[in-house]
Design goal:
Layout (H helix, E strand, L loop, with lengths): L1 H13 L2 H18 L4 H5 L3 H13 L4 H20 L26 H9 L4 H13 L3 H5 L6 E2 L2 E5 L5 E5 L2 H14 L8 E4 L5 E7 L2 H14 L4 H4 L4 H14 L4 H8 L4 H7 L3 H11 L6
Antiparallel strand pairs: 1-2, 2-3, 4-5
């Protein structure tokens, strides 16, 4: 289906590689399940058939949040088809998101954060974890940081959708960066590089770190910090980014400033990120109440 190929090609050019893979996979699952092969098939899909497919996924154990990710992808694709005049009418205009359980997302405590940083065995891992905690970088942004992006104590971050933002970097992190680069001893353009190739074999040629390596480093730092295994299962690079946002909120930073620091397009996304901080803020307020005596 050429329209599908054109859409995912656009996503690959404008979004992160993680978003591209997610969009492509979600659409392939949907189109395969409903037998969509041509643009005429897209025009004739029924909301009832889509709901039936989604309900079956939930019944099979897929989380509502994952199903909603597929719905958002599908809506984005259909809207793109309409905008580009491939179809005239949106056939899934009445499709709604699934209700998700209202759970509090995991964030890392101050003690856990410090332990995850200081327990790292290498300067590279220590710098990576600290940069994520103190600047809220996505894992895709971590691997794309270049040496030239640091300037006068600030870092230019190349975010999603080719959007850039500039953040002041904590002196502790800058100190780690200088030590790491001195130890690394070369001028490779990316901050985090590796000489390891397939199966960890050194190739002698420097290349960018993979996003999977970033995820593995976060898990490893949590293990080295002595965090319980069941809690480590809930800790990911995104957890560090969420913790960064919640730390700013607990320190009195407004949602608008946090939105800019995270590089969010919509402030409602930011509000979801800082929701876990609400419980700590409320606890402090409750304990600060005066007693009658």
């Amino acid at each position: 289906m050429k329209e599908f190929d054109e859409f995912v090609k656009m996503i690959k050019a404008e979004k992160s590689i993680h978003t591209y893979i997610s969009y492509k996979k979600n659409l392939e699952v949907f189109m395969d399940a409903l037998g969509i092969v041509t643009i005429e098939d897209m025009k004739n899909i029924k909301v009832a058939d889509v709901r039936s497919h989604l309900d079956a996924q939930v019944d099979s154990g897929l989380k509502e949040s994952s199903v909603n990710a597929e719905i958002r992808t599908l809506k984005a694709f259909v809207n793109w088809l309409v905008e580009n005049s491939y179809i005239e009418v949106n056939p899934i205009a009445g499709l709604k998101l699934k209700k998700e359980a209202k759970t509090i997302a995991t964030i890392v405590t101050k003690e856990e954060r410090n332990a995850m940083i200081v327990s790292c065995k290498s300067l590279k891992m220590k710098l990576m974890i600290a940069l994520m905690f103190y600047a809220g970088l996505r894992r895709e942004e971590v691997v794309n940081v270049k040496l030239e992006d640091f300037n006068n104590g600030k870092l230019t971050i190349h975010g999603k959708g080719r959007k850039e933002r500039v953040l002041a970097i904590h002196p502790y992190v800058l100190g780690l960066k200088d030590k790491y680069l001195e130890h690394r001893g070369n001028s490779y353009e990316y901050l985090f590089g590796t000489q390891q190739g397939f199966a960890g074999v050194g190739s002698g040629t420097w290349h960018k770190l993979s996003v999977d390596a970033v995820r593995a480093s976060v898990k490893r730092s949590a293990e080295l910090a002595g965090i319980a295994p069941e809690r480590i299962d809930k800790i990911s690079p995104h957890t560090l980014r969420r913790t960064f946002a919640c730390d700013l909120a607990k320190n009195g930073t407004g949602a608008f400033q946090i939105q800019k620091a995270l590089g969010h397009h919509d402030i409602t996304t930011t509000q979801r990120y800082i929701a876990p901080a609400g419980a700590d803020i409320a606890d402090d307020a409750l304990m600060a109440q005066e007693s009658p005596e």
